[in-house]
Amino acid sequence: MKLVRYGARGAERPGLRAPDGSLRDLSGHVAEIDGRVLAPGELRRLRTLDPRDLPAVEGTPRIGPCLANVGKLIGIGLNYSDHAAESGMPVPSEPIVFMKATSAISGPYDDVEIPAGADKVDWEVELAFAIGTRAKNVSESAALDHVAGYMILNDVSERAWQAERQGQWTKGKSHDTFAPMGPWLVTADEIADPHALAMRLDVSGTRRQDGSSRTLIFGIAHLVSYLSTFMTLEPGDVVTTGTPPGVGLGMRPQLYLKPGDTMRLEIDGLGYQEQRCVRAA
């Protein structure tokens, strides 16, 4: 299934993208697309529905973040060997973990803000996954049982705030709109191999990233198991797994986003995103 949320910001409704590409309303069956809906029993119940029996959504409403009430938004840094190389950093011996504020989450087609005083705002197409069942100290062999589905996340990053302002990466990762999510949450049963997905990102019509999740250093099962030793992963938590090469930080000379730029991101099987960069109010 492809679960989606649509409507005005703060008033999104639950929906489903049908196999024929139409948008169908799910509000007669669930109140929201959040951690409660990602439970295996709930997903099984939704799979019994015939999309043709659900009300069709007319027009072209705004598409919101595909998951509501995210408890934790966890980032993994330098998780592609070729991205580590372009960043001039060694391949990590274990996952680099940081947090993004959940207030950074926005819709896949919403504008991305360039904050005042920020001149190193960068793009990062990433494969993210959502937790469906509570995970604590889980083995790697059982880890994928806790993954409900996958989505695109643009891990927008202000590099100076991330690396030049002391302390954690979180500061450079958490401004409003720095986590466009969606358009859909694709349930895990529809993704045969999350480690074989092509990933692309264009900036203002120029291809900047063209990679694949095949080059992940630490795979999905390892990440779930690893993270669950440090914190309990709850239904509705999201982990974004890192970006392939081609970010502005790695270019020579470096290149960063400016107001008026557009980003288009795509991952096989997960749809696409498109954002316009604007100055923050």
Order of helices and strands: EEEHEHEEEEEHEEHHEEEEHEEE
Radius of gyration: 18 Å
Number of helices: 6
The residue ranges in which pLDDT falls below 50 over 5 or more consecutive positions are none
The rough form would be described as globular
Number of strands: 18
Q: Could you walk me through the main structural features you see in this protein, from its secondary elements to its overall organization?
A:
With 281 residues, the protein is an alpha+beta fold. Helices cover 14% and strands 29% of the residues. The protein is built from six helices and 18 strands. A nine-stranded mixed sheet has the order 3-2-1-13-10-9-16-4-5, with no helix packed on it. Strands 7-18-17-14-15 form a five-stranded mixed sheet, with no helix packed on it. Strand 17 (262-267) and strand 18 (272-279) form a beta hairpin. It starts with a strand and ends with a strand.
Can you describe this structure in just a few lines?
The chain is α+β, with helices and mostly antiparallel strands and about 280 residues long. About 15% of the residues lie in helices and about 30% in strands.
Q: What characteristics describe this protein?
A:
18 strands, alpha+beta, nine-stranded mixed sheet
